[in-house]
Amino acid sequence: MPENFRKCIEELGGIDINLVMHKVIYDTDLSKTHSRLSMTIKKFLNKFFSDDEERKFMRDKESKEVKLVEPCLRVSKVNMTSWLIGGSDAFVFNNQWNQIVVNNPDTLKTMAIFQIWSFWVPRQLEKPDLGFALIKVGDVPDKESDVKS
């Protein structure tokens, strides 16, 4: 994780920082109509919920407001919920997602590759807040440029 993202998370009080997944951005992730970023659970490298918490979240169709450190390092709040997408369970950021796309035009592009990291922010006498960081790590190689080189 780049130092500037780690510092931003630590300034929020974030702990238990874990890489959740690598995510390729597709047209549907940027579409104003879809207005969401999907994260298929079967592609997770590390989970942020316990198995019981995840089952309850999925079963009860819960929704949770989470912090999101955007690629531009702005901290926003988005809604996270669970959906069934193409027969697979997924967590989805929605609600403010279109604004996050607008805030990050240089990084949130089709075929960009991101790491999604999770973290927790402890709170006194209450459950901790869940947060995520969205970090661009590259782009899917263009097949035409691969052929030319």
TrEMBL record:
| GO terms under cellular component | nucleus
Q: Which UniProt keywords apply?
A: DNA-binding, Nucleus, Transcription, Transcription regulation
Q: Which GO terms describe its molecular function?
A: DNA binding
Where does it mainly reside? nucleus
Gene3D superfamilies in the cross-refs? DNA-binding pseudobarrel domain (2.40.330.10)
Under the heading InterPro entries, the entry gives: At2g31720-like (IPR005508), DNA-bd_pseudobarrel_sf (IPR015300)
Which Pfam family is one of this chain's hits?
At2g31720-like
- What are the subcellular locations of this protein? Nucleus
Q: Which PANTHER family does its entry note?
A: B3 DOMAIN PLANT PROTEIN-RELATED (PTHR31541), GAMMA-GLIADIN B (PTHR31541:SF25)
Identification of the protein by name: B3 domain-containing protein
Recorded source organism is Corchorus olitorius
